């Protein structure tokens, strides 16, 4: 009779948990798990070793700077499980043959209770880890663990936009649009280069199937995200297009230009729906409210304006900045608008009343961009002073300064 080592038994448990968690088509029983433990421990079988792919994935998962040690360990186990399931397939097939010796069957029975308990624990851990939405990768609590992975882009980089699934990064540059696969940043990026002047803005459709771009050539273009082929060209602006933004339902595209008009376009037909006039200088930033009823715009005329997306009516004008407004962003609940300006400040405005809620001071140069955390508690700002600063949205307190 061949004895089972704890090491071999545990390895078998890991393999079976892979089949339970990662391979929906395979539903092995506890008896099969026990039999597999014996098959793995049988000295007549060749030693089981992980393929190079599994070893590389496991090493990468363990060393990732974004995961706590516990999550990194679980990610490593998951990578090993997946690769090992492929290696063990012939052994699993062999289990269907009535060749297991009586002594081995007795050993399997003895281990059944232990295997069942450990399988249940592994399954629960895997479910909690991989089926529960993870916390935000970047938050105020872990921002000190950020690491530079790679420097991207060729030519001047004007804007970045992640696809909704996080698998593709679009980089707007002076050359065109570079598309990087985030799971393999070393892979040669795809270049979209139909614009005749630098691309200043890019934005993904809510479903991630289409990429929109705005350029110095005065046009907007829609691109097929899978093939990189241009789908439509929107013409009408008479100056550089500095900002593009999709409505949450994906039916309308907003654009801001130096002409200085805010335009709304039908994304299906390319038809101009409305031209919103009121700004007296370049429109640098446009963004939709979460309920898609209002469009906010920030301009070089020092103001932020809110527009009714259905009627085109100007709803409200926020005044207070003493220089160009470069970026605007809605809070996740749609109650507050944040603005970033060349006057080196970030300001928060009540969207309903127009009241100035906070003014964040600390940057020593132009503030180029502003964004909210998903929970609405933190505002991030990026500046020409080479820092990113995190602010408490409720108190206005500076939480952290990232330098680089």
UniProtKB/TrEMBL annotation:
Residues 1-22 form the signal peptide. Pfam families: WD40. The keyword NADP does not apply. PROSITE patterns: PROKAR_LIPOPROTEIN, WD_REPEATS_1, WD_REPEATS_2, WD_REPEATS_REGION. Keywords: Repeat, Signal, WD repeat. The keyword Repeat applies. InterPro entries: WD-F-box_domain-protein, WD40/YVTN_repeat-like_dom_sf, WD40_PAC1, WD40_repeat_CS, WD40_repeat_dom_sf, WD40_rpt. WD repeats lie at residues 192-233, 234-275, 276-317, 318-359, 360-401. It comes from the Bacteria. CDD domains: WD40. This is Uncharacterized protein.
